[in-house]
Amino acid sequence: MTAFLQVDNLCKSFGAITVADDLCFAVEKGQALGVLGPNGAGKTSMFNLITGTLSANSGSVIFDGTNITKYSAAKRCRAGLSRSFQVPQPFSGMTVFENAMIAATQAGGMSGSEAEAHCINVLEQTELLDRANIQAGSLTLLGRKRLELTRALCTKPRLLMLDEIAGGLTEGECRSLVQSIKNIHASGVTIIWIEHVVHALLAVVDKLMVIDFGRKIAEGPPRQIMESPEVQEIYLGIDADE
Ligand SMILES: Nc1ncnc2c1ncn2[C@@H]1O[C@H](COP(=O)(O)OP(=O)(O)OP(=O)(O)O)[C@@H](O)[C@H]1O
Prior knowledge:
Layout: E1 5-14, E2 17-27, E3 32-36, H1 43-51, E4 58-63, E5 66-67, H2 73-79, E6 81-83, H3 96-107, H4 112-125, H5 141-153, E7 159-163, H6 171-186, E8 190-194, H7 198-202, E9 207-212, E10 215-220, H8 222-227, H9 229-236
Parallel strand pairs: 3-8, 3-9, 6-7, 7-8
Antiparallel strand pairs: 1-2, 1-4, 4-5, 9-10
Helix pairs in contact: 3-4, 3-5
Adenosine-5'-triphosphate is lined by residues 14, 17, 19, 37, 39-45, 86.
């Protein structure tokens, strides 16, 4: 039986730069997988390959039993895959609610009162309901991160992919965002979360994967992975022989 998300032998290069090197991993339904790796390891490219904004040289992506490798990004989103972007990309001149509605209608395929009710629910969940009518461009960084989360959730994802959503936040802001992500996970959404803020990731995920040069170098229980000498050397810069 295949996993909820099954990535098999994914390969992608940009000339001499390899961003996915025979990448294989699986995510089970309800799991929260954390992804670590140095800058330029290929983490965002991996999201692009899974969500379809980048096409693979070879390999396959199976989601909920369907081979979606040839699907467009829009079709993958309709199938239940959604992601946030490392750099928040709201429609700055529109309100928070309008941003949510665009995600729900254009990407999520909802309309009318169904879309409105869903957006209100999501904005409540992401703690932005009290700012629904302000311009997205006037939000703080935490607000823009919350709006990224909102826009991803408004498409009704079954697999939510978060790309460095905690980056640049203060400790307090990070804690509050982590609580929201925990609540989303507890509501049944499967998560893959790329993050450099390791303590935030460890507060949520039940499995960790480390990639470097597009290749999976470790995968397993978070504490065990963090303690492995290879990961400490490659990710944290600590020499395994020291
Ligand atoms: N479209 C592209 N064309 C050429 N090179 C690219 C392209 N997209 C990404 N790269 C390169 O591929 C490598 C991996 O980039 P990617 O953004 O996937 O890394 P990352 O692990 O997400 O890094 P970070 O942690 O800094 O966000 C980098 O060297 C990047 O410059």
